Amino acid sequence: MTDRSDRLAFAIDLARRAAELGLSHFRSLDTLTIESKGHQDLVSNADRDVETFVRGEIAKAYPEDGIVGEEHAPVAGTSGRVWVIDPIDGTANFVRGIPAWCVVLACAKEGVTEIGVICEPCSGETFWAERGKGAFVNGKPIRTTAASSLSEGSVAIGFAAVRQETAPAIQAITDLLAQGGVFFRNASGALMLAYVAGGRLLGYIEQHMNSWDCIAGLLMIEEAGGRIMPTDPATVVTEGTVVIAGGANVYPHLETIARDAYGL
Q1: Any residues with CB less than 8 A from the CB of 251 and at least 6 apart, and which?
Q2: Which of 161, 154, 58, 44 has the alpha carbon at shortest distance from 96?
Q3: Which of 28, 68, 174, 192 is most buried by a 10 A CB count?
Q4: What local confidence, expressed as pLDDT, does residue 35 receive?
Q5: Dist CA 217 CA 149 (whole Å)
Q6: 135-140: long-range contacts at Cβ-Cβ below 8 A with a sequence spacing of 24 or more?
Q7: What one-character DSSP code corresponds to residue 99?
């Protein structure tokens, strides 16, 4: 295998082990310590435990790589590669016993995502992609939707109350509904992006996403035949990005909605 493929195999195994650790906490919700980081923004000891575990395993396997994660400070590397971690995406679901959360791992080289893994243990699904090699769920190839109209399915619209104004999100939803579309949100941006890659959702838009929430899923969508708004390699890992992504035929409609709503 190539070095990149080795990293993918490592990431798939690590994400699954991390998800099992998260699942052990999920099965004992009454023992969790939950804190608020801001409006509608929660964190638990499970998030921190899972990220600590993932960081430790990466440091052992690839000590020269950098690490960026949601819950702990970044680690500088020397290889040009950076691992990007969301230990539990969908914490609001997790702490309330809703089985819609996932562990997210990505590895970027010079700001370009090379591999991405999203593991959702409650459904037993692991999505992954390697640049130039396609996208898969549990080893089965996946494709984005072939739909050409927003009336043919549901579109996810993300919203983070802690850092976004409500008006743009409301406009996006209103414009989507006016085109016969249906609004979908399950409080896990990474999982919704994986669903776009798998053709379950037509697309996804959000005014801003952090890298740990989106770069793995965006790679999957590209590798599954979809389109995304290009990200800036110089800033995406550290600063995040606006997200517009979907099936190739519906992408122009999604882009119009997003640009109008977000003032792009």
Answers
A1: 203, 226, 227, 244, 245
A2: 44
A3: 192
A4: 54
A5: 22
A6: 135/197, 135/219, 135/220, 135/221, 135/223, 135/224, 137/194, 137/198
A7: S
- Ranges of the chain with pLDDT below 50: 1, 38-42
Residue 236: closest CA among 261, 216, 262: 216
Mapping DSSP to helix (H, G, I), strand (E, B) and coil, where does residue 163 land? coil
The length of the chain, given as a count of residues? 264
- Strand spans (E) along 11-124: 34-38, 41-44, 66-69, 81-89, 102-109, 112-120
pLDDT of residue 2: 66
Measure CA of the first residue to CA of the last residue in the chain; give whole Å.
Answer: 41
| Predicted local distance difference test score (pLDDT) of residue 42 | 45
Q: How far apart are CA 140 and CA 151, in angstroms?
A: 27
Residue 252 parent element (H or E):
helix 251-262
Question: What was the pLDDT predicted at 90?
Answer: 92
> What phi and psi values does residue 37 have, to the nearest 5 degrees?
-95, -5
Question: Are 158 and 205 contacting, i.e. CB atoms less than 8 angstroms apart?
Answer: yes
What radius of gyration, in Å, describes the C-alpha atoms of the chain? 17
Q: What is the pLDDT of residue 34?
A: 61
Find out whether 47 and 87 touch, Cβ atoms under 8 Å: yes
% the chain with pLDDT above 70: 93
pLDDT of res. 49: 86
CB 196 within 8 A of CB 217: yes
- pLDDT tens, residue by residue, 33-44: 665 554 444 456
